[in-house]
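does this look right to u?? 5-amino-5-deoxy-1-O-phosphono-D-mannitol version
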Amino acid sequence: MCGIICYVGKDKAEPILIEGLKRLEYRGYDSAGLAVQDGDQICCHRAKGKIIELEKKIGDMTIPGNTGIAHTRWATHGEPTEANAHPHSDNDGNVFVIHNGIIENYYSLKKNLKKSGAVFKSETDTEVLAHLIASYFDGDLNKAVRQTMAKVEGTFGMAVIHKQVPDEIVVARRGSPLIIGVSDGGTFAASDVSAMVRYTNKVVHLNDNELATITADDFTISTGQAQTVQRSAETVEWAAEDADLNGFPHFMLKEIYEQPDTIQNAIRGRIDRGEGVPKLGGLSPVWEQLKECRHIVIVACGTSYYAGCEAKYVFEKLTEIDVTVALASEFRYRKLNFAPNTFIIAMSQSGETADTLAAIREARRKGASLLGIVNVVGSSIARETDAGVYNHAGPEIGVASTKIFISQLTVLTLMALLLGRHQNLSLTDGVETIRALEALPDQVKDILSKANDIQAIAEKYHKHGNWLFLGRKYGYPIAMEGALKLKEISYIHAEGYAAGEMKHGPIALINPKMPTVAIIFQDSMYEKMISNIQEIKSRRGPIIAIATEGDEKIRELADDVIYIPKTLDILNPILSVVPCQLLAYYCAQLLGRNIDKPRNLAKSVTVE
Ligand code: M6R
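got this back:
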C-alpha cells in the first residue's frame, strides 16, 4: 500500500528519495511522486505507474535541495493518475503533502474548503490536508498541522513541507505507521524501516496522534495537544543487505531459501534443552496470568490466519488450552464474549494490518488481554499488545508471505510448549519436541535441495487453470496456505479444502485437467487421506502428493510425489509448506508473472 520516505540533511534529497521509493516498491503502488525544497522553492514531480516513470519524468533535470518528501500511492480515492498522485498542494503551491491512510470526513471538509475558495486539482481525500494546512498556516508549520489533525477523521501518516519554512519537515500519524530515522548525514521519516535502512538503523516510532518536526540534525515530537514528548532512538536489527536480492531473481525465492535461518532465528536463545521448556522473555509481563489461561483466540489475516489455524491443532496437542482462530476482518463485527482469563493473540508479519489492529482494539474494549506475534519491531500491533514474541525473521519483502509463516508456526509451537510444560506435558515430550524443532533447519535444507524436482512438476502442470489442495488436520491449513500461495502469485485458480469436505461439493470439479495437491502425512489421518486420493484417482484427476519420506504406497497412487523428511506430527506443517511455496513460485515464473509484486496486492494492508 502507500509508502512514505522523507529526508532533510546534508546531502541532495532527490537521489535519497528515489532510492527510498524503490525500497518501498514491494508494498504495492500505482503512482509515485516527490517534492524537493531548496530555500523558498519547491520542485514537485509525479507520475502514474512505476518509479521508473517518475525517473523518466525527472530525466536529466537537476533538482537542487536537501529537504524532500516522496510517496508511492495505492489508489483508494480516485484512479491511479498523475493528478491523483502525491504530493498534493494548496492553491498557491506553498504547502506540499504526502499521506497514507484515509480521511473519512474529506467530503464535508472539501465542501467547506471549496466555499472558502480552495480549488481542488485531484479526486483524492489527501488534497483536503494541503488546503487545510494552508488555511491554518501563520508561519508555524507544526501548529498548522496540529490544527489540521484536530479537524480530520480517519487515518493518516503524513509529511508536509512549506515554501516559507525551509529545511524542516513536519510529520504526523494516526493509524498509519510513521517512523523517524536518525543518522549523521540527516534525518529521515518513513512508513517503514526498509525505505531508509541503507542510511540508518536508528529509528524513533511516532505514536498515534503525535506529530514531529524533523530538521537535518534534530527532531522534536509532540502530542496533538502540543505536549512535548521525549523519546530516544532504538536500533533495529535489519541491515541494508537484508533488503537486497543477493543474487536471487526474486525476493520470494530468496525468502524461501532463508527459511532454515528463519527457524534458527525464532528458536535461538529461547530453549532450555534439559528441561524441555522454551524461554520467551517477551511474555514475562503477563506470565502469572498467562500460565492460568484456558482460552486463546488468535486473530490474523491471510497467511498469518492460516498459521493460526495450524496453531490450534498444536495447542490442542501440547496444552489444555482451547484455541479459536478468527479472521481479523470478521472478528470485530461479532458479539464478543470472552471467558475469564482469555488471551487474544494478534499475529502479523507487518504489525500494521488494519483489520488485525481493529480486531485487537475491539478486544481491548471488551477487556481481553492481548499478545502479539509480530515480525516488525516497534510496529503498531507490537506496541498495542500487552506482551508478545517477535519473529526476528528480518524483512519480508516479497508480497507473498513465506518465511514468516514458518516463523509464526515455530513461535506458536514454542509458546504452546511453554504453556504445555506448565500444564500436563511431560519432560520427555518437552525434550523430544525441542529436539525435533532443532532438527528442522537441516530438514528444510533437504527439501530445498529438491527444488529442481519441484520445478519439473511445475513445468508439467502450470498451464492447468484450476487446482485443488487437500489436507486433513495438520495438513488442512497447509492446503489453504498452498492454494493461497499459488493463486496470489501465479493467478491460477486454486482452492484449499479439508479433504473430508471433498465429497460435499468439490469432487464435482475433479477431472483430468484439475490437479490436486494432496498433503498426506504418516499420522492418524493417513488412511483417510489415501481414501480421498483414491476417489480422485477414480475420476482421473492428477495427484501431486506431498508425503513423508519412506511412504512407498503413495508412489503407486500419485502421479508425482514430493517427499518431506520425517518429523513429529505437529511439525509436519512447517516442512510441508516449503514444497507448496516452491510449486507456486515455479508456476508463477513459468507463467511470467510479477512474482514479488503481484497485481492488485500490497504487502502491508493498512486500510480496512
Ligand atoms: O502483515 P500481516 O501478516 O498481518 O499480513 C496479513 C496478510 O495480508 C498477508 O499474509 C497476505 O495474505 C499475504 N499476501 C499472503 O501471502
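Residues 427-448 form the longest helix (22 residues). idk if thats expected tbh
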